[in-house]
TrEMBL record:
Organism: Aquibacillus salsiterrae
A GO MF label: homoserine O-acetyltransferase activity
Gene: metA
Protein name (database record): Homoserine O-acetyltransferase
Residues where substrate binds: 163, 192, 249
Domain of life: Bacteria
Pfam families: HTS (PF04204)
Length: 301
């Protein structure tokens, strides 16, 4: 089924080139279907790239979706044109009277900051509090997961000496949780972050279940018992070249950065990395939409 997006969203043409069904707003209005309403709080600096990555995964679901975008009003993006934000994004003040079936909170490259030092932390707290009553289920990604665990459960992050950076093998801690229905017993996920969380602290909270982890990358997927919140510490939405672009950027800045682990073939930066995580990324999003959003949300929001 298609995803409904604004008629002129740049990501739409890229997705059409990849044979992903995207429906114009004008066509969607003619269909007598109640699509799932998904809102994405996009905290990544290159917002248009993240839009394409997430819409690609959402568009692989058999459900019809109506997608909207949210950004912090208290932070001015330096990497996305203001006109793009004005045209396609809203703020919490503009949507807080509405209810949504699902919310996605993306990562942000600010892991080294204390949460309280983030310029839009108070606004993010307002959004996460609003989600308790106005959203059926929220998916938190990377820094968004660290922030959500801290806000909802008081779980602290800690900064690492080196960046956790590469494509890592993951295993299931339980196959009984619906978010990993159909998953292989091992699968790969990219990670790119300077902060982590303590496994024992998560295990001490009855409402949380560790669903998947990695020997090298640590805890990956955590779910609340009621399915209201899903937390993933990696970046399953990443393109094949996303880590490569980050590596080149950091090298050009003069940073002493190591090669991403298990990423470049033969550790040769001239060889194109292989995309090895798309299947499970698609399954993750489909499971979230089906079991935690569609099956749980009321028909009349």
């Amino acid at each position: 089924m298609p995803i409904k997006v604004p008629d002129n969203l740049p990501a739409k043409e890229k997705l059409k080139e990849e044979n992903i069904f995207v429906m114009d707003e004008s066509r969607a209005f003619s269909q007598d279907i109640r699509p799932l309403r998904i809102i994405i709080l996009n905290l990544m600096p290159l917002k248009e790239k993240t839009e394409t990555q997430l819409l690609r995964l959402l568009g692989n679901s058999p459900l019809q979706l109506e997608v909207a975008f949210l950004h912090p009003n208290t932070h001015r993006s330096r990497n996305t044109p203001y006109e793009h934000l004005q045209l396609f994004y809203q703020t919490i003040d503009e949507v807080k009277h509405r209810k949504y079936d699902g919310l996605i909170i993306t990562g942000a490259p600010i892991e080294l900051y204390d949460f309280e030092d983030v310029t839009y932390w108070e606004e993010l707290k307002e959004i996460m509090e609003w989600s308790k009553t106005n959203v059926t289920s929220t998916l938190h990604i990377c820094w968004g997961a660290l922030a959500g665990l801290y806000y909802h459960y008081g779980i602290s992050k800690y900064n690492m000496e080196e960046k956790k950076y590469g494509v890592f093998r993951h295993t299931l801690c339980t196959a009984q949780t619906k978010i990993v229905s159909g998953f292989d017993e091992e699968f790969y996920v990219p990670h790119s972050r300077y902060a982590d969380i303590n496994k024992e602290e998560i295990q001490g909270i009855d409402d949380l279940e560790i669903v998947s982890e990695s020997d090298e990358a640590g805890v990956y997927m955590i779910a609340s018992k009621d399915g209201k919140n899903i937390f993933i510490t990696g970046h399953p939405e990443y393109d094949a070249t996303s880590l490569q672009e980050e590596y080149v950027r950091d090298v050009q800045k003069g940073m002493a950065i190591k090669l991403p682990v298990n990423y470049f073939p033969d550790n040769d930066v001239k060889k194109r990395p292989l995309l090895r995580w798309r299947t499970h990324a698609n399954l993750l999003i489909s499971n979230w939409l089906n079991y935690y959003v569609y099956q749980e949300t009321p028909y009349e929001l």
